[in-house]
């Protein structure tokens, strides 16, 4: 995530609510976040097999690690919107999304593990499908709040704030 979701919280207070400056910042973060994440996950999907087989010799790269990579990509966007709700002190929205996410993820996992009898793969598939669904929902909600623009100065400032947070996370 390169610390970018935390940057949203930090810079939220520097701009008037829903201002062009904040919308440009959010759009810049979103574009970079999606492009960078997609590039990393796609690269690892196609070329990461030797790396992951050395790290996790008892886990099959395909489908387990591949699905895990894409699940992490899809779920990572959640933090951006949740940090906006946190900054705006919208606890009901924040908690509602967390609870619905938990219940839906658990329900899908139970389906794949218990009903479809897919075992460990069912757990991973359930997490994947839930993260994909929430990715779409969160993406739509973030797009409504942002301008689709890549502002290099705003992105640079966001990365300068967020990157030092990476070791902490």
TrEMBL record:
Keyword Transmembrane helix: yes
Transmembrane segments: 25-47, 67-85, 97-114, 126-143
Keywords, sorted A to Z: Membrane, Transmembrane, Transmembrane helix
Name of the featured protein: Polysaccharide biosynthesis protein C-terminal domain-containing protein
Lineage: unclassified sequences, metagenomes, ecological metagenomes
């Amino acid at each position: 995530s390169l610390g970018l979701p935390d940057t949203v919280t930090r810079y939220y207070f520097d701009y008037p609510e829903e201002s062009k400056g904040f919308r440009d910042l959010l759009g810049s973060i979103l574009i970079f976040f999606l492009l960078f994440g997609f590039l990393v996950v796609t690269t690892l999907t196609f070329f990461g097999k030797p790396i992951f087989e050395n790290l996790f010799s008892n886990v099959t790269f395909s489908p387990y690690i591949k699905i895990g990579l894409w699940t992490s990509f899809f779920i990572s966007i959640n933090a951006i919107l949740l940090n906006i709700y946190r900054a705006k002190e919208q606890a009901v929205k924040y908690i509602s999304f967390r609870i619905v996410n938990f219940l839906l993820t658990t329900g899908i996992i139970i389906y794949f593990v218990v009903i479809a009898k897919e075992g460990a793969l069912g757990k991973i598939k359930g997490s994947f499908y839930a993260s994909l669904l929430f990715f779409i929902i969160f993406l739509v909600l973030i797009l409504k709040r942002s301008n689709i623009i890549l502002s290099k100065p705003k992105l640079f400032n966001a990365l300068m704030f967020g990157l030092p947070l990476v070791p902490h996370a």
